[in-house]
Each structure stands twice: as C-alpha cells, then as structure tokens.
Amino acid sequence: MAIALHYTDAQRAFRAEVRAWMAANVPREPLETLESARGFAAHREWERTLARGRWGMVTWPEEYGGRGCDLIEWLIFEEEYYRAQAPTRANQNGIFLLGPTLMEFGTPEQKARFLPRMAAGEEMWAQAWSEPQAGSDLAALRATALRDGDEYVLRGHKIWSSRAAYADWGFGMFRTDPASERHRGISFILFPLDLPGVRVRGIPQIHGETGFAEIFFEDARVPVANRLGAEGAGWQIAMATAGFERGLMLRSPARFQATAERLVELYRQHAAELDPAIAGQVAQAWMDAQAYALNTYMTASRLIAGGTIGVEASLNKIFWSELDLAMHDCAMRILGCRAQLLPQAADAGDVGAWLEGYMFSLAGPIYAGTNEIQRNIIAERLMKLPRA
Amino acid sequence: MDFTFSDEQRMMAASTRELLADICSPAVLRALAEGRDASGAARWERYCELGLPGLLAPESAGGVGLSNIDFVLIAEELGRAAVPDALVEHAAVGVPLLAEFAGEPRVQPVLEAAAAGTGRVAVALPQEPFVAGAGEANWLVVVAGGELHLVPPSEVRLVEQPANDRLRRLHRVDYSPGPATRIATGAAVRDACSRAVDRGALHAAAQCLGVAERMLEIAVAYASDRKQFGHAIGAYQGLKHQFASAQVKVEFARPVVYAAAASLGESGEKMPVAVSHAKLAAVAAADACARIAMQAHGAMGYSWEVDLHFYMKRAWALAGAWGDGNFHARRVQAALWSGAQPLGPAHTFAATEG
C-alpha cells in the first residue's frame, strides 16, 4: 500500500462503460419532482431502467442485483452518474441506508427477500425513526412493537419520514420492551406502508410539495420475521445505518462537484456585474467540493484496506451539508434580484434549479442528525471532551 | 487508485515525532524564545542522525531519493513540534532546488554536503523575501535579476527581520549578483523557482496540519481540566461546537495536502492549483484551531506563560510563508476563471491524472 492517485486500466474501462450507458439511457429532459405522485412514478421507472442495466447498486454482490464493485468503482460510477445529470435516486433510503444494514445484520432469508427487489427498483423504502417528541433525542422514541405470537403489533406515531408518501416499505425503530428506557429495548422492524393499521399523511415542505410524511400505527401487525437483528438490538443497528448515512454513501462527492461546476459557470457568466467578494466564495466552494471528494477517496481507500468508518461520519455530514448550503447561498447572491423568481417566471433567466436546490440545501444541516448533534459527537467521541 | 500511506511512510513519521518530543519539547521552545538556549547545533546533529536533511536528495548525492509524498508526514510532525530550525526549508526546498542543477560542477559538492546535513542551505526567492535559516546557512541559493546564484554567506548581506514567531528567525538576503556565483539563467530559473515555491507551500501546508492538531490537543486538555460553574468548561456546547468546527477544517484539509504532495511527486509542473488549495485549506484550518485554542484558554491563552502561543505563532508565520493567502487565492481563481482547471465530478484527480 502506498499513495498512488491514478486510476487503473480496469477502472478507466469501467468509467467508459458507465459513461456510454448513461449517454444512451439518461432521460433527455429532467423528470418531474419526485415529491409528487407523477414524479415519483417517473423516478421509479428510472430505477427500473438502471436495474435493467445492472446499475441499481454497483457495490452489491451480483446475487442481489449488483456488480460486486469496490468503493473506488462506486465513486467512479457516482461521478459519471452526476456528470450525466441523471435523475435523483428515489430509493436512496433503501439502497444507501437500509441495504448496507441488511447486508450486515440481515438473515439470508431477509437478504434474499428484500435486496434484489430494492436493487431492481421494485420496492421503494422510507425511513421511520423520528417521532414528534423524539427528534435529536432519538432515544426518547415511544412507538411500540408488542409481541403477539408470531407477530408484532405496531403502535405509535413517526414523522419527517422522507418518501413515505409514495414509497412501498418502511424501516423503523420500535420499543419491543414497553418498559424500557433510552437506548435499550428497541428493535429494528421492516413494515409495508400499505399494511392495515398503517396510515400515512403527507406533509408539504416549504416549497409546497409532499417530500415527507407522518405515519400513524394503529395496531398494525407484521411477522416477527420482519425484525432485523436481535430483539432489543435496534439502537446499535440504527447507529450503523446512521454511520452509512452520514459517512459515505448518502452524499457522494460527485453531487457537490457537479454543483460547484455549475456555480463556477454561473459566476463566469455574470462576473462583470458582481460584488468582487463573490469570486472568493465561488473559489472556496469549488475547493471545498474538491476537498470533500479527496476525503471520500481517502476514506474509501482506508475501508478497502480493512479500516472502518465511525465517528468520522459526523465530520462528513457537517462538511457536505455546510458546503451544499454555501454553494447554493452563493448562487442566490449571483442571481441577485432574479433569485426572487420561480424558474417558470418569464424573466427568471438562469434561476433554473438553483432556487429549489437552495431550499433543499437548507434542510441539510437538519436531516440525518442535526449538525449540532454531529458537533457533540465529534467533540465527545473523537476529541474526547467531557460529556455534558 | 490508492490513498493510503505505506507502513514505511508512517514509521518514518513516528520516528520523527519521537525525536522531536525529545529535542523540541515546549521547554526547549520556551528556553529558545527567552534566549536561554544554545542547543541549535546539537539539534541539527540529531536531525542528521535520523537522515532528515537528505531524505529528498538524489541517491547520487548521497541522499535517500524520496519524494514529496514521503516527506509530507514528516513535515506534519515538524509543524506539530513547531520545530525551531529551518529544517523543512533546507530538506524540502533547498536540497531539491540544488538537485535540479546537480549537473553544474559547483553544485554537486554543495548538494552532497546538504544531503549529509553537514552543509546547510537557505533559499532566497523574489516570491519568498523573508528567508528562514539564512542566519545558519553555509550556502545561500539566491535568485536575483532572473539568475540563480549559489553564494557563500560572506558575500551576502543579511538584514534580520525580527519576527513574531521568535523560533523562526527571518532575514532579507541582499546580494549584488556577479558572474562567479551564477548557476543558471533564463526560463530554467523561472521554472525552478516556481517549483521551489510549490514545494515550500506544500510542506508549509503539511506543517500547518501538524501545528493545528497540536493546538487542539493542548486546548482540549485544558478545557477538560479547567472547571467553571462546577463543570469542566469543555463540557459546555459553546466550546464543544467551536472545537468540532475546527476539527472538521483539519480533517478536510488533510486529504487536500496529501493529494497535492502526490501531484508534486508526479511532476513539478502539474497543477499548482492543487498546491495552492492545500496551502489555503491548511492555513485556514490552523487559523481556526489557533482561535478556538486561545478562546478555550481564556486569559491564560493570552499569556506568555502558557505554551500555546509558540504554536499559534508558528501557524500565523506559515500563513505568510511560501506564497501568502493573496498569492494562492489568486492562483486558484485564475485557473478557475480561465478554464485551465478542469471542473466537475470526473476530474477529482486532474493534478495527478494529467
């Protein structure tokens, strides 16, 4: 092992293969927003197209519909995916979060049942963790799954569940021991969203579209076989999921490099009319996107060499969420008076996707664990500062 | 594609850290800063025993023939210790610059002495007017009037520039060039100079990473110990979150510095943007660490008695060395606006992939 920042011939060939497939298959026109019923259906269709090319989740073993790629190839795939401006992955909660968790904690039957359909885009997933009184303090969750023979009976109220309005399945955390407190007595359970006793109510987001939902469980019954991992081990399993989420897969660097590229181009077009301070902000955005990419390659190399990702995930989550916000904030400044307009306005010019992207970037420091919680984790677990 | 250091590279860094813990302890820095120490020659001996001065010198000159990526972790350690000698300037700038002109008969013996550490070199470039190590140098590599000269100290006038970092003595080097000392002229000098600046900037960036981590360690230890309102002050989120923000900056400067080191290893001409980015990111990280470290110490952090200021001053000094923030920011921006820097997701390794 030694630092060699060159792609191998095989990696170059892989890139060429992805590039050619994307060029032939990515829809010419952007799909409707996936936060609408029609848009979600279009994104579902795109997931199926990806799966037909065996691009659904390249790092997964072939038996589950993947290609057995390593993390460097995954990064290359993601680079080509964003380079081709391919649609948002509507199943990201499934493929990036639950998928790796299933791979690690699932039984052979669970893997065979869920992973191929996830990779094929046949079943879309939503995450059901937060509750009205359990946000940052997730261990305060109260939803229960009480054992009744071979079934669990689910009761409770989950909220801020992305994609739940249109997805097929959810993965949630429930107390299987109703007398338990905090991190103990919680189990990780998979449930169909169309189950009797499960009621989903969409919640409009600040742009008016239904991006997330709340889920009410009123004595919904699922087989005990839908539990992932041991009874009572839900918290540890969820934290592993959160590590994947914050750490590596949820936000691949290519996404931000693509935004940085668009930002530099936007700046170049308007440079003459701008506050000179904006030049520095644009350059900083490009450098930070580059830094995030280099850091991810370094993490990927470390994992390939047998390392693990732990608290570092919190560093990543802060960095990418603040970077995304800074880039979109900068774009709004460049757009100036036009930033007031929706993209369909007659004189919106190049507002395009920037406004929606700006609003979405504001959610970055909140979802997947607020940045305040991430800073606590870094300070206490990485830097070993005293706990509060 | 592999972004992990080798065991050998890590071991060399570990030996360097061990040596520096011994000979560049805070007590040594304090004694030096207060003019109570004259151990410079002995320290240099110890660097030579470990082979540090000649690590980047070609084997034909008796060096080890390593590359920038091999030295970057060592520079990090030297920064971490706020090393009070111009070792990085000698080993990572002076020696490689001389090596570029090793074909010149007058250069080879100087290069051999520099590789062995018996002769110390300092480099004075128009881009780096305040020269560290000039006062102790046996030879000065001076660029004047677009020409490169190899000059003995007796022929230059050194104007000491008292510096905020008292452990890093700086001089302006005045020299009236004559034909006797001339090594090279023209484009070769310009290119060699710009490579020297890149090497200096890269290893200054690596030192910033090291000194940044050192400041955080000092401040975390203090904040874990110091109690107010009945609790260790480091338990309060007001400090915790500032600490975490500084740590984020360090972690995301690190791969940028290492990638820049790898890109310089490929060829000195490729992508100075990678080096400028590394310098800007590492300086910003060290600056952020200095700020939180001082804030966490409260009034103690503003005192001479606490060791923190030695490391803060090193961070501030390195910010201005080998291209200041204006120089590097302009270089990045020029490449971005002109289109010279390839953009977008498939160009992460533009500097190494060509």
Question: Could you walk me through the main structural features you see in this protein, from its secondary elements to its overall organization?
Answer:
The complex is a heterodimer of chains A (388) and B (354). Chain A has three domains: 9-90, no CATH class; 125-237, Butyryl-CoA Dehydrogenase, subunit A, domain 2; 251-382, Butyryl-CoA Dehydrogenase, subunit A, domain 3 (Up-down Bundle). Chain A is globular and about 70 Å long. Chain A has 388 residues and is α+β, with helices and mostly antiparallel strands. The longest helix of chain A has 28 residues, at 277-304. Chain A has helices spanning 9-25, 37-52, 71-83, 92-105, 108-119, 234-247, 253-270, 277-304, 312-335, 354-363, 371-382; strands spanning 125-128, 144-148, 151-162, 169-175, 186-192, 198-204, 210-223, 227-228. Chain A is 46% helix and 15% strand. In chain A, a hairpin with a 2-residue loop joins strand 2 and strand 3 (151-162). Chain A starts with 8 loop residues before the first helix and ends in a 6-residue tail after the last helix. Chain B has a domain at 188-353: Butyryl-CoA Dehydrogenase, subunit A, domain 3 (Up-down Bundle), CATH 1.20.140. In chain B, a hairpin with a 2-residue loop joins strand 8 and strand 9 (231-232). Chain B has 354 residues and is an alpha+beta fold. The model of chain B has no long low-confidence stretch (mean pLDDT 95). Chains A and B meet through helix 3, helix 7, helix 8, helix 9 and helix 11 of A and helix 7, strand 9, helix 8, helix 9 and helix 11 of B.
